[in-house]
Amino acid sequence: MMLLRSILPLSNRLPVLIKKGSEADLFLIDWYDKQAISKLRTKRTYRHPVLDRELRYRRTIHEAEMVSKAKEAGIRSPYLYFLDTERNEIIMEYIEGVNLKTVLSADLALELGECIAKLHFKNIIHGDVTTSNFILERLSRQNNTRLAIIDFGLSFYSQRLEDMASDVRMLKEVLNSVHHELFDQAFSNFVKAYSSFSPYERGKKVLRKVNEIERRGRYSRIADSY
Predict the structure, then answer these.
(1) Given the residues 25, 52, 84, 128, the one annotated as active site
(2) Is 224 a catalytic site residue?
(3) Domain 10-93, what architecture?
(4) Within 10 Å of residue 130's Cβ, how many Cβ atoms?
(5) Which parts of the chain sit beneath pLDDT 50?
(6) CA-CA distance, 27 to 19, in Å (whole number)?
(7) What is the pLDDT of residue 201?
(8) What DSSP designation does 8 have?
(9) pLDDT of the residue at 179
(10) How many Cβ atoms sit within 10 Å of the Cβ of residue 154?
């Protein structure tokens, strides 16, 4: 991936803060007469300045790489417009649609399972699999929609079943807490699709690892009660 340093005047970026996070802030900006997203990793005063600068630099480059790698897995993710390694900023496509958290259905859970299975096939662990990190995109030329994954800030590469299971386990917890009324059918559909799109029985192995993680958690709580 080509790494670009900032050569554009700040007047081209008219930011509106849409989300303030622990590691980065998201802005809606005007990028050459179209809407775009700016993800800016600003200084964190609680870290040593040298460490802070290095972390923000590395995490910015890493996230840009993971967004691009997701496309190689057949996943819809934002297109990258500009990578500013001086400001630790990623400027990317603004995907038109609605947040999956507000429209989740049992049928959409099938698409969720397919998306996560395809990421895991390429050994990409998302690290923050919540319904808030998916956009149901409207396809303008078709009367159709598709899921897009956003926010790869916590993603990493791994072949470990435990890491893949952690992704699945996180989504399961989100479905059970935020989408409780849909949980049974939604998670069942997720599992069905995840297993179907996972190669060589790996999906089943990951799901068994999810059960193992849950058992460890229960044993830990029992031990803590004594």
Answers:
(1) 128
(2) no
(3) 2-Layer Sandwich (3.30)
(4) 16
(5) 1-11, 13, 219-226
(6) 7
(7) 87
(8) S
(9) 97
(10) 15
